[in-house]
Each structure stands twice: as C-alpha cells, then as structure tokens.
Amino acid sequence: MSTTDTTATTARRARRGIRPTGRPSGTGTPPAARPGRLTVGTTRIGYEVRSYFRSPDAVFFTFLFPVIMLGIFTAAFSASGEIQPGPGAEAVSVGAYYLPGMLAAGMLLSGVQNLAIDIATERSNGTLKRLGGTPLSPVSYFVGKIGQVFVTGVLQAALLLLVASTLYGIALPTEPEAWMTFAWVFVLGVATSALLGIALSALPRSGRSATAVVIPIVLILQFISGVYLQFNQLPEWMQNIASLFPLKWMAQGMRAAFLPDDFAVLEQYEAWDLGWVAVALLVWLVVGLVISRLTFRWIRRDS
C-alpha cells in the first residue's frame, strides 16, 4: 500500500473515532498520549449524526414523526374545543395539551427506537464485527451513539417547539421554572432512552427483524403512557402498568413544564410528582446502563 493510500485510510479511521492499531517504529503517538475512551467516543458523535441524517427512514420515523403527529392531532381534534381539567380551571388548546406528550415521544423514538434498530442492523450487517476488530472500546461506541441521540433530540425538540408556536399558535411557557423543569426532564429522559435503546438492541436476532421487534414495544408504550390518549381517561390497571415504564414519567414531567398547574389533577395521583419523575428516570437509567454493559456484544453469541 502506498503512503498516500495509508494516509487516506488513517484519516478515514480517525473521522470515525477508530484509533490506529499500531505505529511505525520510532514514530507516532506514544501509548500514554493516546486519546482516552471518552475522547474517542466524542470524535464519533459527528460521524454518528451524519450517518443518522443520511438514513431517510430514521429521519422520518424518529425525527419528524412527533412533528407530524402533533399536526394531525391539532387538525383532527381542534374542532372539539379546548381541554379543561375542571369547572373554572384554565383551559388549553388541543395542540397545547398534546405537545408535552409529543416531546416525550420524541425522546423515546430518538433513543429507544432509533438506537435499538440501528445497533441491531449494524450487528447484522457486520459493522460491529469490523469495529470489534479495532481498538475501539464499547464505552467509546456508547458515547458516540448517546451523543448522537442528544444532538438529534435537541434538534427535534427545537423543531417541534418552533412548529408548535409558529404554525399552530401554541403559547410556550414564560416562567424560568418551567424551562428548568423541561431541561432536566429532557436530559434525564434522553439519557435513559439512549441507554435503553442500546440494551434493547440485543433482543432482535437480526437487523431484518429489528423493526418488527422494536416498533410494537414503542407504539404500545406511547398509547398507554398518555402520549396519544389522555392519561386520566385510561383504566386504572393500564395506568399502573404504564407507571412501570419511563415514558409515562417523561410525559408527566413534560406536562408539568408546559401545562397550567390546574392540569395536575388529571394525573394518576392528582399531582405532578416531579420527585418521583426524577427517581423513576434515574432508576431506568441505571437499569439501561447495567443491561447495556452486560449484554452488548460486537457479535451475537448465537451467530
């Protein structure tokens, strides 16, 4: 291989966050000065984001889907009038009521659905096997994927809020406390969703079956967690099941940030319970982290 070819190959590997497997005698970077796992993972974020936006199906079903669903719900149900939690309470438009749920669904889609299908596909088509033959560690790989979810999640939320305020005339909160609630629920929700997506990617046996395995799980969670249906109108047993999963708590936290306080009476225990929102998301974050680290393999054991 010529010097030019070697240089080009090294450059491509560097852009993907893959360190060289060796160095010529007397040259290169000494081992002590090699970048750490977090540094290597950070360099992969740009590569992962570019790959994400080059996949039309991922962009449509995870990035644009909440925006489209908000438009459908706003157009379909606005004629029925505003939603009011009780006599004398402040009312909001249909679009304003469903906006928090769509924000929560966006986090779930960007993390769980996107990563579970993406990683299962990479394992199936041999991408993970090739990466496993390099010095790239699972931690660096995780950092790249989680960073991609954060970048796309922020862009998706910004687009959703922009569309809601400009096209549908939905009034956004003006209180700093509301935006602080939005910020911490968003960060915890995205991190939890990303780790659960990595964990769930071990379930499909192939990239071809990943969509059939993952999408029904995500879709059911959206219906029972107050995204597409008003949570207080669901049967109690269904609310109890939804409370076992993180999406219900993400949607509840987002409603606390975007809806008037009068709407707290529509929650399961007639309160926003933000402390329990934080606890539930932290528990699921730890669960996702542990399962991801225990089950992640460059190659399936049963392959």
List its traits.
ABC transporter permease, mainly alpha, transmembrane helix, membrane, ABC2_TM, 0% strand, 303 residues
Describe the protein in words.
- Keywords: Antibiotic resistance, Membrane, Transmembrane, Transmembrane helix.
- It is found in: Membrane.
- The chain crosses the membrane at residues 58-77, 97-120, 149-170, 182-203, 210-231, 274-296.
- InterPro entries: ABC-2_transporter, ABC2_TM, ABC2_TM_bact-type, ABC_2_transport.
- It is a multi-pass membrane protein.
- The chain has one domain (40-295).
- The protein is elongated.
- The chain has eleven helices and no strands.
- Helix 3 (56-77) runs antiparallel to helix 4, helix 4 (94-124) runs antiparallel to helix 10 and helix 7 runs parallel beside helix 11 (274-295).
- The longest helix has 31 residues, at 94-124.
- Mean pLDDT is 88; it is low at 21-29.
- With 303 residues, the chain is mainly α.
- It is 67% helix and 0% strand.
